[in-house]
Amino acid sequence: MTLPLRDIKIADFSWVGAGPRATKDLADLGAEVIKIESRKRLDLGRMSPPFAGGKRDIDASAFFAITNTSKQSVAINLAEPAGVDMAKKLVARADVVVENFSAGFMERIGLSFEELKAIKPDIILISVSVAGRTGPLGKIRGYGNSAAALSGLASMSGWPDRAPHMPPFAYGDVVAPMFATVATLAALEHKRKTGRGQHIDISQVEPLIHTLADSYAAIQKGKPAKQANASSSALLQDVFSCRGKDQYVAVTLSTQQQLLAAADLLDIAQTKDLSPETVRDALSCYCQTADKHAVAKRFKQAGIAAEAVADGRDVYTDEALQHGHYRWINHAKLGLCDMPAPPLRFSVSSDRVTAPPCLGEHLQEVFVSMLGEDPAHISKLVDAGILA
Amino acid sequence: MLSHVKVIDLTSHLGAFSGRMLAELGATVIKAEPESGDPLREDPEAFTAWNHGKRSVVAPPYTSAFSALMAEADIVIRTTGIPHRYLQDLKPDIIDVVISGFMPGSETLSEPVSDFTLMARSGLMTIVGDPDRPPMTLPGEQAYALGAIQAVTGALTALHERALTGKGQLVEVSAFQSAVLANYREPLTWAWTGKTGNRTGNLLIRGKSGVRQVWACNDGFITWALVDNPAMMKSFIRVMGDHAGELAEIRWEDILVADMPQTQLESWESHIAGFFMLHDKATLAAWSAENGLGLSQIDTPDDCLTSSQHAARELWVNIDDVKYPGPLWASSESTTPSARRAPALDEDRLAFLGGRI
Q1: Are residues B105 and B60 in the same domain?
Q2: Which letter, b or e, does each residue of A138-160 get, where b requires 16 or more Cβ atoms within 10 Å of its Cβ?
Q3: How far is CA B157 from the centre of its chain?
Q4: How confident is the model over A4-42, as pLDDT tens digits?
Q5: Residues 250-279 in B contacting A (C-alpha not used; CB under 8 Å)
Q6: Do A347 and B170 touch (CB under 8 A)?
Q7: Furthest-apart CA pair in chain B: how many Å?
Q8: Domain containing B56 — which CATH number?
Q9: Does B331 contact A201 at a Cβ distance shorter than 8 Å?
Q10: CB B159 to CB A189 under 8 A?
Q11: What pLDDT digit, counting tens, does each position of A298-327 carry?
Q12: A141 has a pLDDT exceeding 90
């Protein structure tokens, strides 16, 4: 078993979420990802809780860790021309450059696509930004909620009788990097066939719209924008309150057969003109005194899609995730802990999840061993504050 | 980009977005459909949403038509139920991508799932919605979409491996695990702090108090929050002008919003709410862009469908008078899908099977 992307090299200038989540995927699949960081302008992920030991430490954020496994880190001061020169050496040996800086930054430091091409003619540049780099919003700066706001996701979220809802996690930072991973792999395939690199400009807004393609079509045909927990392809779909504080089970009845199976479990199969509403009422009543896991199990055994609504603890301990989703790593600051792996299993290839890097951890390996720089020169750059 | 790649698509609902993405990248994606057609055809808009750019041939597995298609295929995308060995016998270097709710081979694999129940089990629903109401899911079918995107990553990764070694392989994808990865905070927080999250509505909780994230303005809604960013707060107060009231007196460098009592925050927020109600979302968004206020307008679906941004980037394509998202991104290399509509059942029989079957 070998790592499928073992021959791919990535110079990763990206930070926070929208870029690093993509390069984590690629690193876990075997690409060599060198994360180019700044000590002055820290990757904000490094400052995000929770921290191992409970105290803020740029090398001990578990949040940063899950987004940066299997990578190497160097810290370069890109405000200095000598720093940019070192970055260019990493570009020269890379297949792919990834960045999610604000508009114009790469150009200002001399790393525009044209300049990257001059260094490496078939380079693939992947840029991720809030709304893409072209169009009237091509220069806007991103905030946590921008992608949800500008994609319609927030408008379609929440209860129909209330204001739009901002889901409390940066979903634009989840889907856009997945598109960036696909873009990288597709561009590598294109390069293999044509010898040509390219600049791919990924918006955080557009991938969210893509995931809502069928909802957008339905809305144009007059369906309400907010569906809450209902689904137009189900006879009945909702959550039902179960025994205990804030405990629920989620149930989908898609077919008449499932509706009858549910009625049977609820002892209302003999009801005349059985409707989804009758089943809803009986289910609400039944769940009040039942455990969410027990209800889900009983319904699933009857061929009905049902799951307990899980919280963080339920997910962490979920039986279905105990065989390959979490992988053990040993890290200088985090200690022995587990990190999520790609949700993929290959019969020929393998994947890996290795410890995320401490800031600048791979300075010597990258510049001296890999690039063959003179150790004395590297020391001088460190003393001058250009490398760290 | 992928015009040399041929894909056989056996999916109907879960996984349909995978072939759609590959078709958009220029791959030839052939739906090998049963005689009765993909059941999703009963919902024409949903069918078009996930199938535009694909081709169609009636060619269910175990028929000679299917074998003929397979002989030239690089990738198959499907759910469980067909032995990998059968596909491998038809095409030894095939990349066989299987997407299902749970990872094949696990005890949970055979359990019935819907997108909604996968979202429930992923932990995402517990934190979505309002504290005074039950948990809720995200719009659309996000667990299915996330799984489908991961399946494309799996397919293209295996294509890369095949270019290196000549070997095809089986790639299995769990939509459940894909959704769990989207829930990047909750299991992590439990593992490291022993705390579980819950629904906070539109309040962003920082420290002991929460700040509003969604505000009404005079023609809709915007998103903005009081944050510990003194430069941004000063710009904001300047833009508020006379409406700032008591906010004008605050020395933002000397306080931490996260430490303010809830009643104080709500008093400040009432001034801000009044200010937003005087203006429309476009004006507020323009001020934010000029002054770095950290505010975004909340676009309605209609706003998105008519947005000048999306028009400039040619995001929407028109098919039978309905707009669907087309390109996945912008690129310096052009990519053209083979068609800008969903295929009629079996319409590409001649093109792909000729007189052979």
Answers
A1: yes
A2: bebebbbbbbbbbbbbbbbbbbe
A3: 20
A4: 999 999 999 999 989 999 999 999 999 999 999 999 999
A5: none
A6: yes
A7: 82
A8: 3.40.50.10540
A9: yes
A10: yes
A11: 999 999 999 999 999 999 999 999 888 999
A12: no
Same domain for B286 and B321? no
Put simply, whether the predicted model's pTM sits higher than 0.90 gets the answer yes
In this prediction, residue B319 has a pLDDT band, given cuts at 50, 70 and 90, of very high
Q: Crossing angle, helix A375-383 and helix A81-92, to 10 degrees? A: 140
> A297: burial class by Cβ within 10 Å (0-12, 13-18, 19+)?
middle
Cβ distance B152 to A134 less than 8 Å, yes or no, reads: no
Q: Same structural domain for residues B73 and B168?
A: yes
Among 3.30.1300.10, 3.40.50.300, 3.30.470.10, 3.40.50.10540, name the CATH number for the domain at A9-211+323-383. Answer: 3.40.50.10540
Residue B145 domain boundaries:
6-184+314-353
B315 and chain A: CB distance < 8 Å anywhere?
Answer: yes
User: Which of B125, B130, B311 is closest, CB to CB, to A159?
Assistant: B130
Chain A: give the shortest CA distance to residue B190, in Å.
6
Residue range A199-206: mean pLDDT, rounded: 97
pLDDT at B356 over 70: no
Distance from CA of B289 to the nearest CA of A (A): 7
Candidates B162, B202, B284, partner chain A, best to mutate (most A CBs within 10 A)? B202
DSSP state of B82: S
Please tell me whether residues B299 and B323 are part of one structural domain.
Answer: no
Q: What is the spatial distance between Cα A223 and Cα B140, in angstroms, rounded to a whole number?
A: 13
* Of A65-74, A147-156, B160-169, B226-235, minimum mean pLDDT range: B226-235
- Residue B62: name the closest of B98, B35, B37 by CA: B35
Query: Which of A211-215, A225-229, B36-40, B225-229 is predicted least confidently?
Result: B225-229
- Sequence ranges of the domains in chain A: 9-211+323-383, 236-314
Q: Is B296's Cβ below 8 Å from some Cβ in A? A: yes
Mean pLDDT, chain B, integer: 94
The whole-angstrom separation of Cα B225 and Cα B301 is: 23
Is residue B252 in some structural domain? yes
Residue of B nearest to A310 (CA): B123
Residue B193 lies in a domain: no
- Same domain (yes/no): B152, B212: no
Q: Which of A1, A44, A210 to mutate to test the interface with B (most CBs of B within 10 A)?
A: A210
Q: Is A201 a catalytic residue?
A: no
B330/A134 Cβ within 8 A: yes
**Is the CB of A25 less than 8 angstroms away from the CB of B153?**
yes
One domain for residues B63 and B178: yes
Total count of domains within chain B: 2
- The reply to whether B134 and B178 lie within a common domain is yes
User: Which residue of A5, A51, A171 is in closest CB contact with B160?
Assistant: A5
B14 to chain A, any CB pair closer than 8 A? The answer is no
Measured distance CA(A277)–CA(A254) in Å, rounded = 14
Q: Are residues B177 and B240 in the same domain?
A: no
Least confident residue range of A167-176, B173-182, B329-338: B329-338
ipTM over 0.85 threshold:
yes
What average pLDDT does this structure show over B152-181?
97
CATH number assigned to the domain comprising residue B207 = 3.30.1540.10
Length of chain A, in residues? 388
B334/chain A closest Cα distance in angstroms: 10
Q: Which of B136, B172, B335 to mutate to test the interface with A (most CBs of A within 10 A)?
A: B136
Tokens at B133, concatenated: 């109401």
**B275 located within any domain:** yes
pLDDT score of A121: 98
Smallest Cβ–Cβ distance between A157 and the set B115, B138, B323 belongs to B138
d(CA B261, CA B328): 45
CB contact under 8 A, B141 and A214: yes
Residue B238, in any domain of the structure: yes
Residue type, B195: K
CATH architecture of the domain A236-314 equals 2-Layer Sandwich (3.30)
Catalytic residue of the set A25, A59, A95, A173: A173
Burial of A334 (0-12, 13-18, 19+ CB in 10 A): buried
Any CB–CB contact under 8 A between B76 and chain A?
A: no
Which tens digits make up the pLDDT trace of A335-378?
Answer: 999 999 999 999 999 999 999 999 999 999 999 999 999 999 99
